[in-house]
Specification:
Immunoglobulin-like, 4-stranded parallel β-sheet, alpha+beta, globular, single chain, 2 domains, TIM Barrel, 10 helices, 6-stranded antiparallel β-sheet
């Protein structure tokens, strides 16, 4: 298998520059590691075991399931990358979960048997999270800031719903909802000829949830997703940086540093459904000022004492740590007459 992958990789590199090989291997990270080779097999691979543990972490309001998974994730070649995702065209697979973890996920996210498919949960992101905008933002914040490249499943950027009554995996494969036009703007065909019907329920129906409407709403989920993507593109540390998990006493607040070259980012994520306070040991960054990336807001400088932050329910902060100029910094013009 690996010799064959190496031949394919060589052929692609020679004839199709800019293309990638993505491994869909639903296994533990250590078992997936060989598919990267020494950057001579697959460029990327899905991180399947992490995905259900993101949902576990938010539901249990505990960062341990997430951090523990990264402790079991081996290093990969520098040119390679993990793919992180929340949902896809199949069920939310629970194959890489223990029996106890699987029971917990079914109880938390799929109490209705119709929501269960194979060994997993056939639901889209918004219904899984009870259409709670705060949770949706938090979950995306996690996959956009943890090590790896995020993949967004079509429709999740506008909060599309599903139809668990369609059977098999079809419930999460309904037509994209572009507008309020016929067939949600997906097709001009007779509705009876569509492979799958559009979503028409009162919450997620295409009349209310569609691209056209969200483009016209400044604070829609679609616009927020676009801003998050733009911020990520500005900061290479989110794509290529190392990660260091801090371990605050508050188990509901996940905190980690992403570092790449001269850039240091601090990520603080409240997994809890209530407001939380957290103290962070950031002494080695004393003198630096955290700059919040969404609003470019400067927070108080870090000192020798623990740094205190408070977060709203399911709140998050993306900070860039900027070293402040010392008071005795000379600009070379102090003796000039202006």
């Amino acid at each position: 298998t690996h010799e064959y992958l190496k031949e394919i990789r060589k052929w692609i590199d020679q004839r199709y520059q800019g293309r990638i090989l993505l491994a869909e291997a639903n296994q533990w990270p250590a078992d997936v590691r060989p598919y990267f080779g020494e950057n001579n097999e697959c460029h990327m691979a899905f991180h399947f075991p992490l995905m259900p543990r993101l949902f576990m972490g938010v539901r249990s309001e505990d960062w341990h399931p997430i951090v523990d998974m990264f402790t079991h994730t081996p290093a990969i070649p520098e040119e390679c990358q993990w793919c992180l995702f929340l949902r896809n065209h199949d069920e939310l697979t629970l194959e890489m979960c223990s029996g106890e973890e699987r029971d917990y996920m079914y109880y938390a996210y799929a109490r209705d048997p119709q929501m269960r498919r194979n060994i997993g949960i056939a639901r889209r992101l918004a219904p899984l999270l009870e259409n709670d905008r705060r949770k949706i933002e938090l979950m995306n914040s996690l996959v956009f800031t943890l090590p790896g490249s995020p993949i967004i499943y079509y429709g999740d950027e506008i909060g599309m719903g599903d139809n668990v009554h369609l059977g098999d995996r079809n419930g999460v494969r309904t037509p994209m909802q572009w507008s309020v036009d016929r067939n949600a703007g997906f097709s001009k065909a007779d509705p009876s000829k569509l492979y799958l019907p559009v979503i028409t329920d009162s919450i997620y129906g295409y009349q209310a949830t569609n691209v056209e409407a969200e483009r016209q709403t400044p604070y829609s989920l679609l616009h927020w997703m676009k801003s998050m993507i733009a911020i990520r593109k500005k900061h290479p540390a989110l794509g290529r940086g190392t990660i260091e998990f801090l371990r605050p006493r508050n188990d509901k607040v996940l905190v980690y540093l992403r570092q790449y070259q001269e850039e240091t980012l601090l990520m603080v994520q409240n997994l809890g459904g209530s407001a939380q306070a957290v103290e962070l040991d950031l002494g080695k960054f004393a003198g630096a000022a955290p700059i919040e990336l969404f609003g470019e807001t400067r927070f108080p400088a870090i000192g020798e004492k623990p740094y205190m932050l408070s977060l709203a329910p399911y709140g998050y902060y993306w900070f860039r740590l900027r070293q402040e100029l010392r008071e005795d910094t000379s600009y070379g013009i102090e003796g000039s007459v202006i």
